What we know:
This protein has 19 helices and 19 strands. It has helices spanning 16-26, 54-59, 64-79, 126-130, 136-154, 157-165, 181-196, 215-220, 223-232, 256-268, 336-347, 366-374, 392-395, 452-460, 463-473, 483-505, 514-526, 591-594, 603-609, and strands at 92-94, 115-116, 270-271, 275-284, 292-294, 303-312, 317-322, 356-359, 378-382, 404-409, 412-417, 427-431, 438-443, 446-451, 543-544, 551-552, 566-567, 569-571, 576-577.
Amino acid sequence: MSDIPSTSRGPGRPGLFETFLADNESTEGSDMDIDPSESSYEYDIPSDPFASSDSETENSAGTPRAAKRRRVAEQEAAAQPRQDDNGNPDWIPVQPPEPEADPGSRASFLPRNVGPRNAPPRNSQPISYIELFLDQELLVHMVRETNRYANAFLTDDAVIEWIREHPNSRFKKWPSNGISVVLLKKYLGLSINMGLVQKKRLTSYWSTQPSQATPYFNAVMPFWLFSLINRMIHVNDNTTEVPRGADGFDPWHKVRPILDRFNDSFKRHYVPSENVSIDESMIGMKNRIVYIQYMPNKRHARFGIKKFELCDSNGYVYHMELYAGKDFDIRHDEGQAHGVVMTLMSKSHLLNKGYHLYTDNFYTKPHLAEVLFQNDTYLTGTVRANSRGMPAEITKAKLKVGETTYRRKGDILAVAFREKQSQKKPVILLSTRFPAENVTKEKRGKEVTKPVMVSHYNQFMGGVDVSDKKVCHVAAERATHRYWVKVFRHLIDIALLNAYEIYLLNTDGRKLSRHDFLVSVVETLCTATDEVPRQATPQHHLVLLPGRKEMDCTICSDRKGGKRRRSRHWCPACSVGCHEKCAARLDHTQGSARRGVKRRVTDQDQEDSD
Length: 610
């Protein structure tokens, strides 16, 4: 036996080296046209291109024909439907244009009359649309809770002591019978007007300096009354609040009535169009509370309270949920994103009606698309590359500018598309509504071809962003230490936006701009018939001072004249001391009583004393 190792790969067959020599000898002096009949041996090619014998697997790994057969087999196998580990159809490549599915097998859009419903008569005044949300029942509730809180606050012992030590306190001016609905409307009207006439300080609206004066505010309501209502405003009963850590604790207890009522009224007076979107938004603030979130991609407010919104494509907010952190998160086995989408869609009553939902890559998942499709709801949205269940041919695609690649799994279609050179990675989208189809549009004088689902996503996804932009320009929000007050004002702004959207759809002819619409609302709310209440007498009465404290009697004591007379009783509302025998001569409505100045005795008082 020779010492040189044999290059043969099997018994009875020549090695690669011998085959190469034989081929060169048979083709010498020719144009390299190989005749199979002149070959040194014949290959055994099976009839089934996918079947291979043991000897072929062992011996034909390096032959050109074997490599060609392997490539053909791989291409044929790639074209065949694949299955995952559970036996379900896997992602298969598709090419545009893909025929659309049978309309009979797809869910149809059920709502027929989209837009306003239960609305005022056509061409009504702007105030009629505000009253759809800020109705009389809600205003009465807010007045009741505000007066309840004011009474509890002003009768507290610590507040009474503080008022006694500060004779000029504004709390002494609180109306004896509380505020009315008319005063609350004026307060809301001025608050809305502050979003149209923006100033940095609250007191600047009542400034008397010629260069800074805005006389309208003082003509509607004095500053002391506005600041009092602003301090006492409440929409829920604090005595029913469950402590933190106890069962039934609600982090949004202080705004729960108005939040729930607005969500109900938003759905009662509007039917959204077929294309809706879900996204998160922010109520900007930096208060020291545990609910503050940080979202760097929200340019209008990076810090604040996060909320999830379901909006129509025109910016109408259909339903919203406030986010209080992971301790109060929407629980779901498939994760937070899945739970948020299903909760908003369920509470909005939009499932099983053929709606088309658009979401961003935080929410879009293949499993969510399957669940929504089973509930007759379409889903289109961007997808993260690391999302579970996405094909590697899409998530790891290397595409040139303008290239697309499609993969389908049942009713779900995934696409990767690279639109421009500056886009390092292709954008990935998933949809249960559109087929694999490209559309050509003109952009800046050039024709641009992109997937049809990308075009529709750009058109209908921005409902929440449109809402944020419209609210931000004329927001009545102001900086405050009480976080829930800013949430309350933000909810008012959203109600004003929704009212304007209904106004646009329910008005013929020339329509007011949003600025003029709000001006009309402000002027209507601020025109009331009731006079602004001044200090009243029913709450004024003498109270025994705590301990052994005494005060100068404001009626009979005169320090300058050397006649100092002390009393164990005082009037908390006037913050002055007074003997019981002098109480009948004390005029509670005079301003001097609040400053502790001695009363001027009238002729009638002198007669009574005699």
